[in-house]
Amino acid sequence: MTIAVIYGGTRQNGNTELLTEQVVQGIVTEKIYLRDHTILPIEDMRHSQDGFQERNDDYNSILDRIMPHNILLFATPIYWYSMSGTMKNFIDRWSQTLRDPKYPDFKNKMASKKAFVIAVGGDDPTIKGLPMIQQFKHIFDFMGTDFEGYILGKGNKPEDIFQDKEALFAASQLNNNLKG
Amino acid sequence: MTIAVIYGGTRQNGNTELLTEQVVQGIVTEKIYLRDHTILPIEDMRHSQDGFQERNDDYNSILDRIMPHNILLFATPIYWYSMSGTMKNFIDRWSQTLRDPKYPDFKNKMASKKAFVIAVGGDDPTIKGLPMIQQFKHIFDFMGTDFEGYILGKGNKPEDIFQDKEALFAASQLNNNLKG
Amino acid sequence: MTIAVIYGGTRQNGNTELLTEQVVQGIVTEKIYLRDHTILPIEDMRHSQDGFQERNDDYNSILDRIMPHNILLFATPIYWYSMSGTMKNFIDRWSQTLRDPKYPDFKNKMASKKAFVIAVGGDDPTIKGLPMIQQFKHIFDFMGTDFEGYILGKGNKPEDIFQDKEALFAASQLNNNLKG
Amino acid sequence: MTIAVIYGGTRQNGNTELLTEQVVQGIVTEKIYLRDHTILPIEDMRHSQDGFQERNDDYNSILDRIMPHNILLFATPIYWYSMSGTMKNFIDRWSQTLRDPKYPDFKNKMASKKAFVIAVGGDDPTIKGLPMIQQFKHIFDFMGTDFEGYILGKGNKPEDIFQDKEALFAASQLNNNLKG
């Protein structure tokens, strides 16, 4: 079992990253910081004659790094009660990959993976972050990916997350589980 | 009362746009097609010494077109069970505007507006689109904006929306209401 | 296709009933007013040696009236953001029926039915009623029942529902659909 | 600060009760087991000339035991993706109390309390229990009660909850917090 971490945050060492580091401590992972890459929004070409066009950005190269791994950690700060727009653009592009002859097994491969969500927010995340968790549930259900769990942490200012003992405990539990 | 429509879709004449046209039929509106503009993802600089930096994209000019209006229609296809990444990036940037001295009254002005959401999706939108509605509710509550209503339509292939009689009826009701 | 209507309200001719009458106008249905019956809360005996005991109330006789029908309408006022306690007690008892040798095919039979929810509430039902819809979705998914649609109406005082044109339109659409 | 625990479960020493005992260990609390009392469903008499009538059951005496306390723990097994029908009937009756001249300060008093929810379920509670949490949020918001937190535990067979380390940790954290 190997792990890819997909970071959606835009701030280095943000609370979400700090919490996620607890989760993957001592584990070799493939880390992808979406902010360091260009991912263009999808252009919905499902119904055009020529179909989707190559976007010539970093999306495919990121996908190529993710696909070999069995476990995906989606680590995103909660921006406006859901994942960051950066991460959303990444996921939106899956609609293109689902129709891309270069990735004929995309859905099947995603269906064999396990996913976790790690998200930190400042505004009552364990309540107001729930629609985001429900969205991820629908996303993973569509792909057939097992949604194995999530951690919702509370943090606003840098390093706030270290005050959220329940999130830290959940991170250490998940770390054990992933090492297992 | 004047209306701005913020389109988050990436396909011209998509189902969401067709439905929204029913809503605003016969009404002069400011129409913003986010896909025609460059909106960079937010870089969270809340906690850096220098604060947020100008991103030199189209975001502020779009905001300037929206702010004079009392009623905002957020029209987005449902991509992966929420608004498009394009629209999400637009909303994410509000965090910057909230701290931007050029927009000292941003929150107050938003708090005096009414908002509607119009969204069309292909995968059981009246059930699986609900977390998106709950997310918008949290967004509008944060800003103090009145969330006056929403229409969830069903459509996948072009023009499918014209089969969704309940969505069309809701659109005509909202049209009357906005004309009123 | 025949229809059973399960009314969870406690007030005769309440808004939910008025709306539901629009839905079933001109259609012969089996109408069950839960308020006219005694349905005891479940006693969870899954793990006791003797298993569930007969509760000697009206639950089984109600179930016997429902089971022959292909379509179930759950009509409940929104009390405290979900179905009435009366209706909840009725559904809670399904856990007993699932283990009741007198109903060996309970789950299979429920899995062949279609369900609709009709609910009227006074406090922002199209937003604050959504967790109830999501709860019903989980209930029907567990049983394998198709959740074919719902109507959320707004009403507080008697006959308020006649002002909710969208709910009335949805009711007339569903009426056509059920007659069809 | 004193605490009342309102138990909605129907099985003695069920997983929800075991988890809740961890939460209140070493703390004197007022414990109310709803299953030991008769609580009739509400009859909605808001719009009848004579108003609500005394129901002559145990509801008021339970309310009288709860009202003196500042902190309320709602401890319910997850039955069909929400609180038990027993607990729902209890909460439904609040609509009567809100209009009961014997409880003129009901809402004000509830608005000064803090509430926690402790719930154990067998079917993916941290996902499928979320609509219940959102429902409680709406309930507490209506009353003005602070919804201070919740624990969703996993358990099906007796004592399963002792395997849910995150729920147990959250319970011990809440225990410290309540003792504090």
Automatic annotation (TrEMBL), chains A, B, C, D:
Query: Which SUPFAM superfamilies does the UniProt record give?
Result: Flavoproteins
Query: Which Gene3D superfamilies is this protein grouped with?
Result: 3.40.50.360
Q: Which residues form the NADPH-dependent FMN reductase-like domain?
A: 1-124
Q: Which UniProt keywords apply?
A: Flavoprotein, FMN
InterPro entries (UniProt xref): Flavoprotein-like_sf, FMN_Rdtase-like_dom, ISF_SsuE-like
Keyword Flavoprotein in the entry? The reply is yes
Q: Write down the superkingdom of origin.
A: Bacteria
Q: Which Pfam families match?
A: FMN_red (PF03358)
- Under which name does UniProt file this protein? Flavodoxin family protein
